[in-house]
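Progress against Task 2.4 (sequence-to-structure conversion) is shown through the following example record, which the project officer requested during the mid-term review.
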Amino acid sequence: MGFLSVILLIVSAGIAGALVGWYLGARRQSQRLAEEQALDKVFLSSIGDGLIVTDDQGKIVLVNRSAEDLLGLRLSDVLGKYVVDAITMVQSNGAPLAPEQRPIYLATSSGQKVISTSLTAAAYYFERADSKARFPAAVTAAPVVVNKKIIGAVVTFRDITHEKEVDEAKTEFVSLASHQLRTPLTAINWYIEMLLSGDAGPLTDEQKSFLQEVYKGSNRLIQIVNEFLNVSRLESGRLKIVPKPLDIALFVNDIIKEVEPLARARNCTISFTKPAPTLPFIPLDGILMRQVVHNLLTNALRYSPEGKCTVAVKLEKGQARDFVISVHDDGIGIPADVQPRIFEKFFRTENAIHAVTDGSGIGLYISKMIAEASNCKIWFESVEKKGTTFYVSIPLSGSTHRGGDRELITIKAPAALAAK
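Structure tokens generated for the chain above:
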């Protein structure tokens, strides 16, 4: 065998060896990929929550087994279809939920995760494809972002029917207990006022001081009871909404005047910036919306440094056909890790508890429920130790009339509390 033949033989053997190595490597890689895919499939199937994955156009690319069982459908029936067409979401009254109100739309349009639990004001409902029965769900929707571009979205959800039933039972209990508490508390206040007025004879300065403290505590209890009753009215869905044409600038200005005693007691100032005098009248339920703005203003004052603070209130035209009320403070702020929970019922941040010990944790919850029931939106921006700005967006179309057998109790802190 010649030298050239030997070289060719070696080269051929090397190529063959390389091909065999490549084949075996590719086979191992293919096997590993198949194993990973099988593992992913098992993992997704084992998740107890429903899972829906869409592409950048909103078309379904994956539905796990839990989602199939909860929604009464199969992946093969909805694969490649638009999620808004394939999966039905409704409101609590059965009316279809508009596509722009769905969590997946809110997440992809804002680029932020959207979380809804049983404690939020507006529950989401899914409708089963096989029976048309609907169930409330806790939903989390998050955009999938790669290189700053949204390439899809992931939605997880679970049935919270039992949680809603328990929550409704607790609400009814709180409502019943609160009704029973109001009568004796009102009587206590009445007798304290009579004593302070001297109806039972003159009091010493020390006795008056003690009674004034008792009066403050009693009024605080009445305020908490009224807040609990309002929660039950809002959560029952039978709250009456009666919109009437409202001058928004005058409306906000009146509320500012109402909270000025609290501002003076804390040596704080309130500034109000508004657009040109000629503003359209917007149909709103003034009693309901007053609760929202009043709560935001009092929170801004209470959580700002006492002695030197400014609360800035603005009324300006929004980008859409709406007006936006903003309330800014330079107070304690809201820690970033708990901001998604700020509208939950009874939730208070640690720094808020340390700053104001007597809060109930339902003021913002009530505000969100009222805002959403009134076709408005409420949100905030905050940096811990630097302050918070709350926003309320009011559409020019205003609120929609809704009949009901329950009205909101106007929560107004008595003058005795302003100096606290």
